[in-house]
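tl;dr need the bound structure. longer version: we got a ligand (zinc ion) that a collaborator sent over and nobodys looked at where it sits. i said id run it. heres the input, straight from their email, havent touched it
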Amino acid sequence: MSTERSRLLSWRHPAVVATRLTRPAAAAVGAISLTAALLVAAVPAVDAAGPPGQADRSGAPRLVARAGERMVSYPGLAVAWPAPQVSVSSAHAVRGLVSAPGVGATATLQRLVVGVWTDVISTPVAPSGSFMLPLPSFYFGHFSYRLRITAAGVDPVETPALPVAVVPTYRPAGRDTSYALISPSPVGRWDPCTPIGYRVNLAEARQGALRDVQSALARIAVATGLQFRYLGTTDVVPFAGDDPFDPSVADLVVAWTDPASVPGLFQPGNYALGGPEMRPGHDIAGGPVRQIYQGGVTFNSAFNAALKPGSGKGYTRVAALMHELGHAVGLFHVTGDGAEIMSPSLARDRDQWGAGDLAGLEAVGAVNGCVTADSPARGNGSDAQALPTRD
Ligand SMILES: [Zn+2]
């Protein structure tokens, strides 16, 4: 199976490795005040059995560790954090016990996003001082969390940051440095806070193609936190014209087309094209981002018979879709690590993201928060113009 072309963009980006858009922690979020009236009592005893928040014989509530949890004591606050690594989609909670909860005490789980502490979820603290907050684990990534306890008339209290990695249920092959971004600086990525609407053009596809698109998108979603919404079918063929397609059709289109119907679209040996369109944008800290606002994948139907439906052994349609959709969410080819789906050539029997794929998908994913376009108009300005595709 030969290489395929990737959509490249008219704007020039420096050829540097991916750079995270990190900023110093925002100072305005709130001050740590361990002497606040909220925290007057000593940390309660912690033992190794029994349910959380259980009262002991003296009537004092206790926080009890469960298997794998990290018990951390802060002045006036004990917290059972999940393990440093949790499997994706496994259920975890952050449980805590405030020694002397103030009036209207509230516990908030916050996540560090491009240097800004951002609320994830809040819950009232019970009169006993206990609280429990679910920890999101629906996509892979390396996250930094903290707790913020507020109450009427006292300064908020914030714990130091604590890392939690959400990891796959399999052990990825390859190296976590083995990835390249189409736009490394500023990073080119979709807005993870808005669902990506997609359509499929199945006119030249074989049976089961839509199911395989959805399977591949699910694998993108679990690795990025991006959300995809199926909008139906279309007759659009991405990259067949000067622009990928009319933006009113969908954000993302996956098509199969007969190469004879679009002369020049495919080079000899190309089984598919995939790529993004980008425009200027910024993250929640105001840092620059190349916002991907459109993505396309077009398969050469001459190779339909070469790709097995589904995933698993052989050259599979799901693996090919993962690769092309990887381009559409901002990943470029990586060479020298055959374990990666984003290697230039499709590989036999390889249908799981490698360690480098996962690191790249994290870099373009929801870990780094929402993206806002600098201009609300789609496709405006020279920045959104596309160059002819190249190999
Ligand atoms: Zn490719």
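gonna send this back to them w/ a short note. Helices lie at 209-224, 317-328, 355-363.
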